[in-house]
Specification:
Helix content: 55-70%
Distance between the termini: 25 Å
Number of domains: 2
Radius of gyration: 31 Å
Strand content: under 5%
Shape: elongated
Number of helices: 16
Structural class: mainly alpha
Strand order of the largest sheet: 2-1-3-4
Oligomer: single chain
Length: 386
């Protein structure tokens, strides 16, 4: 019972500070959102179109841009608004059609169309889509002018015939296939690719940096005062361990549930995901306890905790996917618990497998947890009784 009381006090100390609330709950969700928006799934560049008096040919052009499926078209009333939006980055591109666009083309003139692009990869995507749309219309216009000049029919009639012929022509179909196993299947969702890596990164990092609370308890003499009461050392140690484990489980459960509810992230088999979370949380709690029992000042624990937390996460694939590592680096990465946990989530989420497929990963994480908790228990007992 005293162990639970000590654990409860540790939880209250952790979540009583507003900064901890931000870094434990809000910041991981913001990173999942940022990674999903930046790298996950399909993103359609936004293109603003100014067309005050485009006429039928201008409207056809805008409809073709919108119907290409590659762009998100927004009609804007002022040309300066298009330019400023592209400059600020709220639009990836802009198209400015001159007034009387259809009349200029019908009379045989050349319409000066201005389009603006961002100097990045999305800007190049916009350029390709816009140029292909204009090229298709230009082909029809050239055919209509030739037909009108040779046969004497009106330009509008010749353009209608040319458009009908263009629609009747067979289209070139491009089929894209993935050789081997798809690393990031489309049904995984844009936010699912970063959720598991951020879960492991923050659970481990929070446990390591949370070791300062254990150092503060020792520095203020709270541990010795508790030992002066009828409280054995094992109760104190188990209470500290449960407190560290409670923080890790609460944070991990929040990230899992929050990403599922808000972003639709799938975590695969529930039993397997829960087992990975529990064992990884035990590992993180053991590492945090060991750090808190070895160092004597909060500054030392924070510095080493950040270094180890971020370094092990980077090495274990929580910042760059393990698939991007070389064969040698993938083997090196598996000295970290992060890599084994990521392998487990990969089997559950990407391949849709069950608990039986991640027995090895669970066993390795269990071994990590047993070793770290044993070392932390031994070292903490010496630190508070020595």
């Amino acid at each position: 019972m005293k162990s639970l009381t000590i654990a409860g006090n540790n939880l209250r100390r952790t979540f009583r500070q507003p900064s901890n609330i931000f870094f434990v709950f809000i910041f991981p969700m913001l990173l999942i959102l940022l990674l999903g928006v930046s790298f996950g799934g399909e993103f359609k560049p936004r293109v603003g179109v100014y067309a005050d008096d485009p006429g039928p040919m201008g409207e056809e052009l805008v409809s073709s841009l919108a119907g290409s499926g590659n762009l998100e078209i927004t009609r804007i009333q002022e040309p300066e608004s298009v330019r400023s939006s592209v400059e600020r980055g709220t639009l990836q591109g802009g198209v400015l059609l001159p007034d009387g666009y259809s009349g200029i083309l019908r009379s045989g003139g050349q319409a000066r169309v201005e389009y603006l692009l961002r100097p990045d990869q999305l800007g190049q995507q916009v350029r390709t889509s816009v140029e292909s749309t204009f090229s298709r219309q230009a082909v029809i216009l050239r055919a209509a002018r030739f037909s009108s000049g040779e046969t004497g029919i009106s330009f509008d009639e010749a353009r209608t015939q040319a458009a009908a012929v263009a629609l009747a022509l067979p289209e070139i179909e491009v089929e894209v296939r993935t050789a081997g196993e798809t690393l990031y299947p489309e049904d995984r969702g844009r936010f699912g690719q970063g959720a598991s890596s951020q879960l492991l990164l923050f659970v481990f990092l929070t446990s390591l940096t949370g070791s300062v609370a254990l150092i503060e308890t020792r520095r203020l003499g709270l541990s010795r005062r508790m030992l002066s009461t009828p409280t054995p050392a094992r109760t104190l140690v188990s209470g500290e361990m449960l407190g560290r484990l409670g923080v890790a489980l609460i944070q991990g459960t929040f990230i899992m549930a929050g990403s599922w509810l808000v972003f639709g992230v799938s975590w695969g088999n529930p039993a397997g995901a829960a087992a990975l979370l529990v064992l990884f949380s035990l590992t993180a709690a053991g590492a945090g306890m060991l750090l808190g029992s070895v160092f004597s000042t909060e500054q030392q624990a924070i510095a080493v905790g950040l270094l180890l937390g971020l370094g092990l996460a980077a090495l274990g694939g929580s910042m760059v996917p393990l698939e991007a590592f070389s064969d040698t680096m993938r083997k090196v990465a598996h000295i970290t618990p992060h890599a084994w946990a990521l392998d487990g989530f990969t089997a559950l989420v990407r391949r849709g497998e069950g608990v039986d497929a991640i027995i090895t990963e669970l066993a390795v994480l269990g071994a990590y947890a047993a070793v770290l908790l044993s070392l932390a228990t031994w070292r903490l007992r010496r630190a508070i009784t020595g």
